[in-house]
Amino acid sequence: MSIPVPYLRYQSGFGNEYATEAIDGALPQGRNSPQRAPLALYPELISGTAFTAPRHENRRTWLYRRQPSVVSERYRAYAQPLWRTGADTRVPLAPEPMRWNPFPVGTPNCDFVDGMHTLAANGDAEAQAGLAVHVYLADQSMQRRAVVNADGEMLLVPQQGRLRILTEMGTLDVKPGEIALLPRGVAFKVELPDGPSRGYVCENYGAHFRLPELGPIGSNGLANARDFQAPVAAFEDTPGAYEIVKKFGGHLWRAPMSHSPFNVVAWHGNLAPVKYDTANFMTIGSISFDHPDPSIFTVLTSPSDTPGTANCDFVIFPPRWLVMEDTFRPPWYHRNLMSEFMGLVLGEYDAKPEGFKPGGASLHNCMVPHGPDAEAFERASAAELKPQKLDNTLAFMFESRYRFIPTEFATRSPQLDARYADCWAGLKDRLEP
User: Domain spanning 10-278 has what CATH number?
Assistant: First the structure.
């Protein structure tokens, strides 16, 4: 990769109007598509929204590249049966909680594409609503191969092993505890510098992820736009053929290409891959009694057509202080309109100290009761309520207005915990007249 200024690896901000060039003078001045672009490059526009979207919501980027992306051969079908799209709502699904133990790291001879396993999905990619939740289980880097997802943007949550993500706009290095957001339609490939790797992916078919409104919180709090980092322009100049794998209409397709798709010498715009370190999240909570709803932990939100009811919220539970008095501090027992898929990156989750492990997952759909297991309930009910630091922990949640439908892979997986509901069996009638 050609990186012009080694100490300036990233540009800060979320949704900023970025401008970056790998060679001085590669960006045209004043005109996006001049009759002859600097350095004889090809201008190419990638639009992430409709042309007539409101100006403050419009996402697009101009790329100035050595060859345009139209230069490829014909596509043919590519079989990857474990990467699924949308949900079959005709499948009968019992209204019960579900949990999976950690999935084995590094499926043999699989890169990021072939190691993708869909656990659950909802909505419809064609209707641009809903999402799919995957785990990637990979043991090798993508070599002369790139992937383009035309069905949705991808939110990557590494759990074990770093990712080096080469995109058309530059490179992102992402470690566990960080996340990466890759726009719909942007080519990328994933390298595994630490070897076999595991992590979670939200494939969002709906509206772009964005920062949530802060309301009464005010102008500061939660995730700050400045802490999101976009790559600077860099291009791959090693000659040789590539394979493009494109996800389009719920199917995978492959085509040979005589050159690298990572040939963008300069770009400007506000549609860009970004990464974010969850350690920079400004956690907010109660400093008196009780505790607010988990919406205060929202990092990014994909809104739906119903205000306040998200297509998907990405929520994290990072290290934080608990100081509330006379309060049951773990999450209480609850049933929600919103459906919750949860994963654990590291440590333990305070409501499930034993049964929920890093690399595992749980699913609690609409109005399915859940909450602390019996051990967590007893411990929290009798705890001496001193200030307590929850440390060395990072759980997250993909929360959606739509019901998640598990895939056949998920329901037949040996990692499915068939005895999950037993964790509440010890909760007895506690009435004390």
Answer: 2.60.120.10
- On the question of a common fold for 10-278 and 279-418, the answer reads yes
Tokens 């990637």 sit at which residue?
136
Looking at residue 125, the DSSP 8-state letter turns out to be T
Domain coordinates in residue numbering, the chain: 10-278, 279-418
Q: Which CATH architecture has domain 279-418?
A: Sandwich (2.60)
Determine the pLDDT at residue 9: 62
pLDDT in tens, 313-369: 999 999 999 999 999 999 999 999 999 999 999 998 876 767 789 999 999 999 999
Cβ atoms 128, 208 nearer than 8 A = no
Q: Is 291 a catalytic residue?
A: yes
CB atoms within 10 A of CB 33: 12
Residue of 56, 208, 259, 291 with catalytic role: 291
In angstroms, the CA 329 to CA 385 distance is: 9
**Rounded average pLDDT over 73-78:** 95
Using CA atoms, how far apart are residues 145 and 111, in angstroms rounded to an integer? 10
Q: Give the C-alpha separation, 299 to 278, whole Å.
A: 9
How far lies 91's CA from each of 87, 104, 296, 408, in Å?
9, 27, 34, 10
**pLDDT confidence of 92, banded at 50, 70, 90?**
confident
Residues 300-314 pLDDT 10s: 999 999 999 999 999
Give the global pTM.
0.94
The CA–CA distances, whole Å, from 113 to 244, 253, 392 equal 11, 12, 30
304-324: burial string, b at 16+ Cβ within 10 Å, e else: beeeeebbbbbbbbbebebbb
Angstrom distance (rounded) from CA 277 to CA 369 = 32
